[in-house]
Inverse folding.
């Protein structure tokens, strides 16, 4: 089909329609699937891909877990220590000759190997580009296809099945596909019947398909937003679609309008290829407000490691490091620090993140995020930071949330510190600490694209992000995906980290994949 012809055996569609035909293709448990490709003996067994499980490691997280591993309570973005408690590593049990732990209750742990995963993904994406005129790749394991000119609604089921079968036959991995007249409907459809799913939602079926879905099946709705919606007596997408949108806007700001439109099936965004991202970020929500500094520091370290790894995997240098702290109820605070030049320094990202977050350590925090921005992909020389004492740089000042936004999000400010020209703060190495820099996230991922997604279950997997999932929020700020709750995660995938989204079973790190499939 590389020449643009239709599916073999299918005549060119005669019907003319104004409704686009969009496919959302999402690999199921992608990292684990890749590991099974090179170790077929792992088929059908619990597989956990992540880091930090080797003796002597102190920090680590689950990037993705196979469905068999999820049955033991292992989830993406979970601390590796928790995963090992729920599903002991088989190699450790064998080495210890532990008779108390049955081998069938152990799992196979593998390290993240992004270069290998990218090679497998490239083979799959080559198939997708042969099957569509426009492909929007949103993460290593996820893409949207506009196939309006390649098929017709009357035969699209067979077309989508053809795409699935080609990928499984030629690449060796299983994908789930959702088909709809828009990106948001296709995304929800791909999550609807995982794993190995194929769900087609025709234009006249959109309302009836969406209406009975629980609100947390809507893209970008995590546990926090779902609780808020249910407190408004909105249990399903149909309830949201039938509601007056104004109270939603009052409660969630412009996100409320996005949620309403999504529940109604209104989404006219065209499928367009993505450009270079402007930033990479990873976010993670706690189950509730956390006051103890220790778990917040641990989570921050994991996020900093993930975002730095993602940047390195993508070949990006960064000039800005930032953190986000969401306090109850939706008070979004961000801090940023500018560097004298572009760098690739994971240790420095962690140090600056700790420094910037220090003012929030004693506060109850619902969600944390770490971000690098002002990216350069040119391979320019890195700036020398050896003489910079980061601990002498202020962490910025916090301002109350701007209530007028309706989102509990603070307005942007530039912190004033000795030695900084407030009219030209960028001249200082720690020039800006911004407040309320909410980031958009593409529909999907939790995709730490290498650390932990998604991005929704930003691993699609029909799962919404759970507390503790890493969000690929802000992975591609140029994207125009529906807004995501600033206090929830849902990979891509991210999104993403959306990335768009990452499956809620997969961590999306640029080196972690937020794939929950």
């Amino acid at each position: 089909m590389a020449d643009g012809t239709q599916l073999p055996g299918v005549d060119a569609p005669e019907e003319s329609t104004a409704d686009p035909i969009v496919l959302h293709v999402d690999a199921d448990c992608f990292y684990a699937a890749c590991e099974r490709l090179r170790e077929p003996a792992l088929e059908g067994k619990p597989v956990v891909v992540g880091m930090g499980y080797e003796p002597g490691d102190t920090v680590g997280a689950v990037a993705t877990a196979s469905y068999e591993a999820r049955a033991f309570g292992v989830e993406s973005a979970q601390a590796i220590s928790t995963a090992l408690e729920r599903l002991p590593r088989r190699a450790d049990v064998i080495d210890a000759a532990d008779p108390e732990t049955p081998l069938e209750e152990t799992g196979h742990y593998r390290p993240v190997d992004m270069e290998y995963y990218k090679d497998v993904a490239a083979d799959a994406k080559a198939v997708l580009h042969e099957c569509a005129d426009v492909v929007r790749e949103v993460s290593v394991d996820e893409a949207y296809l506009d196939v309006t000119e390649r098929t017709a609604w009357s035969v699209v089921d067979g077309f989508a099945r053809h795409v699935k079968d080609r990928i499984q036959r030629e690449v060796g991995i299983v994908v789930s596909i959702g088909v709809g007249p828009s990106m948001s409907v296709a995304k929800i459809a791909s999550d609807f019947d995982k794993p190995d799913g194929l769900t087609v939602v025709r234009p006249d079926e959109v309302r009836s398909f969406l209406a009975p879905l629980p609100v947390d099946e809507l893209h970008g709705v995590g546990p926090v937003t779902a609780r808020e919606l249910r407190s408004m007596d909105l249990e399903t997408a149909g309830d949201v679609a039938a509601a007056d949108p104004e109270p939603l806007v009052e409660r969630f700001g412009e996100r409320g309008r996005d949620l309403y439109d999504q529940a109604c099936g209104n989404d006219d965004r065209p499928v367009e290829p993505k450009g270079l991202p402007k930033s990479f970020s990873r976010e993670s929500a706690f189950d509730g407000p956390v006051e103890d500094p220790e778990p917040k520091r641990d989570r921050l370290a994991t996020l900093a490691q993930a975002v730095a790894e993602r940047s390195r995997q993508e070949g990006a240098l960064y000039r800005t490091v930032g953190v986000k702290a969401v306090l109850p109820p939706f008070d979004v605070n961000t801090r940023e620090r500018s560097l004298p030049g572009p760098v690739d320094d994971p240790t420095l990202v962690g140090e600056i993140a700790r420094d910037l977050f220090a003012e929030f350590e004693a506060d109850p925090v619902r969600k944390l995020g770490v971000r690098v921005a002002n990216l350069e992909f040119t391979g320019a020389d890195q700036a020398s930071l050896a003489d910079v004492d980061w601990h002498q740089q202020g962490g910025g000042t916090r301002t109350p949330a701007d209530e007028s936004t309706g989102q509990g999000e603070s307005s942007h400010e530039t912190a004033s510190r000795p030695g900084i020209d407030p009219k030209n703060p960028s001249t200082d190495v720690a020039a800006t600490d911004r407040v309320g820099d909410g980031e958009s996230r593409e529909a999907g991922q939790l995709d730490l694209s290498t650390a932990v997604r998604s991005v929704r279950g930003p691993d699609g997997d029909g799962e919404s992000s759970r507390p503790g999932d890493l969000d690929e929020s802000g992975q591609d700020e140029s994207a125009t995906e529906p807004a995501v709750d600033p206090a929830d995660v849902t990979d891509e995938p991210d999104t993403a980290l959306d990335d768009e989204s990452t499956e809620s079973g997969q961590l999306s790190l640029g080196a972690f994949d937020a794939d929950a499939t």
